[in-house]
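Retro notes
What went well: the complex prediction finally ran end to end.
Inputs used:
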Amino acid sequence: MIRHSNQRSGVRMSKSVRRIVATAAGLSAVAFLAGCASNAPQDTWQPKGPNAQKIDDLQKPVFAIAGVVGIIVFAAIAYAVFRFKDRGQPIPEQTHGKPVLEIGMTILPALILAGIGVFTFQTIFDLAKTDDTEMVINVTGQQWWWEYDYPVQEQYGITDPIITSGQLVIPTGTKVLLRETSRDVIHSYWIPALNGKRDAVPGRVHYLRLEADEPGIYAGQCTEFCGLSHAVMRMEAVALDKDDFTAWVKGQLSLAASPADGTLAKEGESVFLNQCVRCHQVNGLKKADGSPAIAAPEDNVWSGAAPNLTHLMSRNTFAGASWDLLTKECRKDVWGASSEEFGAKYLTGVTEECLNQTDLRRWLRNAPAMKPMYADPTKLEPTDGKYRGMPNLGLSEDDIDKLVAYLATLK
Amino acid sequence: MFTNGSKYLIGVTGFSALVLVLYIALVDGAVGGAVALASVMMAVGLLAGLALFNRDGDVQVGDTAAPANAEPVGSSLWPLVTTVGIVGMGIGLITHEIVFLLGLVALVAGFVEWVIQGWSESASSDRRYNAAVRGRLIHPLEFPVLATVGAGVLVLSFSRIMLAISKTTGAIVFIVVGAIVLAGGVLLAVRPNLKKSMAIGLCAIGAVGIVAGGIAGASAGKRDQLVEANEEDHFAHKECGEEKSKYFDFNAEAKVSMRSNPMATIEFVDGKLQARELGVDTPTTKVTVQKSNNIPVIFRNKTEGEHRLTLFYGEKEVQEGVVEELHNCTQMIEEGEEQMLIIRIDKPSIASEKPYKFYVPGVEDQSIEVFVP
C-alpha cells in the first residue's frame, strides 16, 4: 500500500517537473528567438563605430567566459542535486573543510576576474580619451527630449552655433565628443550602435565619444529613469558622409523665411507668434513690428527650454524623437537606404507628401494625450506654474490646419 | 471575550476606515493620502487579526503578568496635552498653519503617550513594574525625539545669538563657548567620580544660558549690517566694475564640487584673455554655452594686480521703459588665484543687439565672445 502511494507520488512529481521544464524551455526559446529580431535598432551586439566596437570586443569574450562558468556551475549543482538526493541512505561522514578545494575555488575566480579586469580597464580608458577629438557637440537633456548645439567649428563650416533636437547629426569617420549635461534631472544618453551609456547630470558636464563608420540612423533611448515620460525620451544619431554633413550644416545656418502673404502658412505664422513662440524659438521669425520674435521658455517651462523649431522639417522625428514626422513608407525609405543613397534621402527632409500629418495634428490637438507630461494647469504649484512638457493649447481645427502649413515650411 | 489590546486595535482599524472614507469623499484627487490611510487600516487590521487569533493583545493575558491593578493609578498629564493639541489645531485652522502643525504634533504625542500610559498601568498592581513596562515600550521613541528637539532648540538659540552680535564679538563668543564645552568635557573625563547631579546641573545651566541668550538675541534682532545688506539686496546684486565691490569682494566664491568639470576655463595671461573649452585642447576666443542652464566657468588671473572676469549677457527691462544691462562676475582676485563663476543665460544671442561676452573690466580689446544658440 505504501509502495503504491509512493509510486503515485513519483508519477505526480515527474509530471510537475516535466511541466516546469517545458515552461522554462518555452520561455528560454522565446527569449532566445527575441534575439533574432530583424527590426532591433537598439541591438547592443551590432556595433557601427569604433567605440561601440571596443565595447563589443570586450563583452563578447566576457560573455563567453561567463557562459562557460555559468554552465560549469549549473552542471555541478545539477550533478549534486540528482546524484546526492535523499534516497534514505545514511548521512555521509562530515568533515571540516577542504583547504585545497577552497583555496582553488577562491584563486580561480579571482584570476578570471583579474584577467577580465585588465581588459575592462583598458577599454574604459580608451573610451575616456578626448585628446584626439575632432568635433565637439553639446548635448543637454531635459524632460523628455534632447537638445544638441554645435559650437563654432569653422573647419566643418559651422561659423555660427547650430541648435537642433531629437536627431543628432554627425559626420562619418569623425571622432565626435559629446559634452553632456542636464537642465532638470539626471538623464542618460545611449546610442548602443555607437557607444555605451553616459549620464547627463545637472550642473556637471560629462563626456561621451561617438564615431560612426557608415552613413545611417542609429537609435537610442534615455536609460536613466527621469520621470513620467522616460519611456518615450528617445534619440537618434544620424551619420552623414562629410559632403552631406557640410550640406546639412549649410542648411542649419540659414534663418527661417516668412511664408508668402495670403497663404495658409502665413496665417499659421500668426498662430505660431500668438501661441507657440512663448516656448519655441524659430530663428528669423519676426513680430509684426519687425523685431525678432524671441521665445521665453524660461518663463513657461520648468527646464527653461523647449525645442528650437527653425529647421523642424529637416528632422525625421518630433516630440523627443518619439513620433515620426515622416509617413511609414517614407521613413522606411530613409531607414532602409543604402550607405550611398542615405545622405541624399535624409537631406531631402520632410516633403509635403511625406509629412506624417496624422501624428503631428494629434500632437497639436492635445500633446499630453500622446505623451504623458506634467501639463495640467491646475497642478503646477510645485513648479511655480511652469510646465514640464507641452500643454494642451486648446487649438481649434482651423488653427491646427494653419500651424501644420506653417511648420511644413520650416525646412 | 475580546482583550483590551484587541479592542484597541479593532477600534483603530475602524477609525482608520472611517477616516479613509471621509478622506476619499472630501479630499479631491489626493491619491497618496488615500493609499497611506488604506495602508494604515490594513496594517492595524492585520495586527488586530493576529491579536484576536493569538489572544495576546493585552498584558493581562499571559503567564508573567501580575494580577489586575489593585493600587490606584497616579495622575496623568497626557489628557491635558491632547486637549491642548486639539485646541491648537482648531486655532491653527483660523490663524496660521504652523499653529495647526504644532497642535497636530501635541495631539499625536499626547494621544500616544496617554494610550501607552493607560496600557502600562493595567499591567500589574506594581507601579514600578508598570513604569518599567511603559519605559521599555516608549523610551526608544521618546529619547531620540527629545534629544532632537533639545539639540534643535540649542542650535536655534545659538544661531540667534550669533546673528545678533557683531562679527568680532561673534568670533570671541564662539571661542569662549567652545573652550567652556571642551573644559567641561575634560573635567568629566578626568573626574569620573564627579556627582551625576553636578554634571547634569552644569549641562542644564549651560543649556539654559544658551536658550536665554537666544531669546535675548531674537528679541534684539539681527545686527545692523545684516539688516542693511538684506534691505539693499547686497547678496544678489554684484558690482562687476573695475573697482572692488563694497560687499561682494570679501570672500571667495569657491565651490569645490563644481571645479571638477567647468564648461570652460578662462585665463587672463599677461593682459590677454583666452578660453579653453572642456574637451578641446586649443585655446579659443569664442565659447558656446547652453541656454537656461547653470554653466560652471573657472577664471584664472595670471596678470599682475587684481582683476575680475565679467560676463555681459544682454539687457532686461526692469521697469516699464527702464532697461538694465545684465552682468555677472567673479570677485577681484590677485595674480595666481582662480575663482569659479556659475553663469546662466536665458536668452539666445540673437535676442541681443550687442554680442554676449566675457571681459576684464578696465582692459580694452580683450574679450571672449559667448554664443548662446
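What we learned: Chain B touches chain A at residues 258, 260-263, 277-281, 286-294, 296, 346-351, 371-373 (CB under 8 Å).
What to try next: split runs per interface for comparison.
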